[in-house]
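dumping this here before i forget
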Amino acid sequence: MAGARSQESPMRLPLSLVFATLVGCRITDGQNKDDTGRIVDTGWCSNIGTYWTEATYTVGAAEYAAALGEDDTLSAAACEQLCRDNHWDAFLIQQIDVCRDDGPDADGDQLIYCHWEEEELCEGRAHAAVARTRRGTGPDPVAAWLARAARAEAGSARAFSVMAVELARFGAPSDLRARCAEAARDEVAHARRMGALCASRGGVVEPLVDHALPDRSLFDFALENAVEGCVFETWAALAAWHQARHAADPELRQAMAVIAGDETRHAELARDLDRWLRNRLEPADHARLDAAVADAFARLEARLQRPLPEPARLTLGLPSPDDAVRLLAGLRAALL
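structure:
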C-alpha cells in the first residue's frame, strides 16, 4: 500500500482502532438489538457490472520478442495476450476492443496500448487461482445473498492457501506463510457459517472452480495483494464491522461480528505482506502499486454510490451510499 510503514511505527494505526473509530462500535458478540428492517434483499453484488478502461503497458524486450510471429510482427491475438499477461488479474477482462503497438520507449521497452471491458469486483479476496462468481441462488433474495457470500468465503480460503504456497516460493518469512494458512482456516469457517445460514433458507452455494496455480512474478503477486488485500478486503472488513452493528437479521449480525474480527486480521496481513513485498521491489514498481491502489479506491467509491434497495440495505446492515463513501474516505485517509 502507498506509504507502507513497518508494523512497529507509531504512524501506523491498528485497523481495529481505525474501524471502531469509523463505525463507532466494538466487535464483541454481535448482540446489538437494533431491528430496523425486514428481510428483503437483492444482494450486495447484484449491482456489480462492467466498465471500460485503458492502459499502456511497458513490455520488456524479451517478452515482446517472444510474442512476435515468424515474420517479426505482432498479431492481434498476440497483442491481446500481452494485454492479459500484463494486467494484474486477466480473469477480470471481459473483452479487448483495442490493442495497439505504440513502439519502443526511451529505454528500449515496448509500449502496448490496451482498451478493454473489465468486470468489477465483489467483496472477498479474489485470486488468479479461483474463478469468480457474482450471483447466488436461493428461493428469496436473502438466501441468494448468503449463497454468494458463502461461495466468496470459500474462494478466499482457496486464495489464502495458494498464497502460502506462492510465498514459500518467494522465500517469505515463515510467520507470513503461517498467517496465510491461518486465514485460510478462518475463511473455511466463514464459508461453513454462511453456508449453514444459506441452507436454512433454501439457498444453494455454487461450487468453486479452480484455475491452475499461477507461476507469476513477485510484482504480480504484490499487485494482487495491494488491490485485493489492501483495498477490497480491507473495505470488506470495515463493511463487516458495519453489518455486525446494523444488520436487522440477528443471525447475520452475530455471524458478521465473528467474521469482522477475522477479516480485520486478514487486512492487517495484507498490509504486512505489502511492506515485505515492497522491500524487495524497485521504486518504479512502488509507483505502479500506488497507481493500482488509487485506481482500486476510485472504482470502489464509484460502486458504493450505486443505491441498493432500502429494505435490502437495512436487512444486511450495509451502509447507505453516502455513509459508504464517508467510511471509505475515512479509511483511505487513515491508510495512505
